[in-house]
Amino acid sequence: MGFDPFWGAARGYSDELLRSAGIEVFAVHDTRDVLFGGHAPEPDDYLLGDLRAAMKAKAAHIGIATDGDADRFGILDEDGTFIAPNYVIALLFDHLVETRGWKNGVAKSVATTNLVNALAEHHSVELHETPVGFKYIGELIKHDKIAIGGEESAGLSIRHHVPEKDGILAGLLCCEMRARRGLSLSEQLRRLFAKVGSFYPLRENFRLTAEVKATFTEKLKQEPVRFGGRKVVSVARTDGLKLLLEDGSWVCYRVSGTEPVVRVYTEARSEGDLRKLSAAAKDWVLH
Fold first, then answer.
1. CA–CA dist 195, 119 (Å, integer)
2. Where among 68, 83, 98 does a domain terminate?
3. How many CA atoms lie within 13 A of 184 on its CB side?
4. Among 50, 197, 211, 282, fewest CB within 10 Å belongs to which?
């Protein structure tokens, strides 16, 4: 397997732990660089090209990456496909129930995929939906109310571990899951969709003029009965405004308190519907 610590704090941890278990590991960006290669040390899809190329050359089964301070994760499947954090959290939740028998609870932020909700129902596990911010999930871990908790921004932790996100832990758990199940992560995700249905999430940021921000902030106080041609079945204000629609899709708006930006999270049950919902979500911001 391949490992990319992005010149950061995970160097000498994830790879050495795996080698001690007899796993063949290679690493990229495994030297000290206080400038992190000249860009943000973030394990996002567009920055994982070096790891992806090395994996292809060495026919690796999985690639794991961590950000500079090692609290966030990035995961590549054996063919180089980036596995979105939303899906990683859901897959690991399913894996922990299957291998550990942990069914005491699961937590996710309001902006994280409802694939977790569907799995919680499937496994008869209590679901906790929190505001954005890992401190809320950390409290649940401290009181052993959940087996795993995660956020779509690539942070997760599990019971009996620190109540804070841990990218090293996330990567090691993904390696364990890949080895235990003997299937690519993409195949595991297809099987998960076959079990509880498909979910396609998206996060977008829209910059706002002062005028548009003022108008949109007032609009957020409303509770629409229809959105994008679909009936709104519930409204949540756990963090921002989240509208659950009749077909199981949803949209969530969170206005930044520090910059003129609104973060828009959408999720639909098909890729075609996601494109339509994303367009409706943007239109609702600007008009």
1. 9
2. 83
3. 14
4. 211
Joined together, the tokens standing for residue 68 give 């500079």
With the C-alpha atoms ordered 153, 156, 162, 163, is the resulting torsion angle positive or negative? positive
Please name every residue paired with 148 in a beta bridge, in sequence order, or none if there are none. 106, 158
Per the structure, the count of domains in the chain is: 3
- The long-range contacts involving 189-192, CB below 8 angstroms and separated by at least 24 positions, are 189/83, 189/87, 189/91, 192/90, 192/91, 192/94, 192/115, 192/119
Q: How far apart are CA 90 and CA 281, in angstroms?
A: 25
- Tell how far CA 185 is from the center of its chain: 14
Do 90 and 68 belong together in one domain? no
> Is residue 205 domain-shared with residue 188, that is, in the same domain?
no
HSE of 280, CA atoms in CB hemisphere, 13 A: 20
> Does pTM top 0.85 for this prediction?
yes
CATH number of the domain enclosing 174: 3.40.120.10
Domain of residue 260, residue span: 200-286
